[in-house]
Amino acid sequence: MECFHCNNCKQGQDIYYCLAKDEFIINENMTPKEKNRGGWKKGDPSYELRRRKIRKERDDLKSII
After folding, report:
1. Ranges of each domain in the chain
2. Which residues on neighbouring strands pair with residue 23, listed in sequence order?
3. How far apart are CA 1 and CA 20, in angstroms?
4. For the segment 1-59, what is each residue's pLDDT rounded down to a tens digit?
């Protein structure tokens, strides 16, 4: 099999499609990356302030309707 130089194997993906072999290849050298959780967290003091503010605004809107 001759390589078609599609560069799928050189992109650093965990799984890629090889045109020459006509199959999906699993790159076993890759290590799984941990996902970072962004956004608001319950332990954050500003989270509680924001949650209370939004809840108050929601209650205020309910009283108008």
Report:
1. 1-29
2. 18
3. 6
4. 688 888 888 888 888 999 899 999 998 887 777 877 777 666 778 888 888 999 999 98
What lies within 8 Å, CB to CB, of 42 at 6+ separation is: none
What sign for the dihedral angle of Cα 55, 60, 63, 65? Answer: negative
Other beta carbons within 10 angstroms of residue 53's beta carbon come to 10
Cα-only R_g, the chain: 25
Residue 44 confidence (pLDDT): 77
**Burial class of residue 16 in the structure, from the number of CB atoms within 10 Å of its CB (0-12 exposed, 13-18 middle, 19+ buried):** middle
CA separation, residue 3 to residues 9, 28, 44, 53 (Å): 11, 20, 53, 60
Would you say the pTM of this structure is higher than 0.70?
no
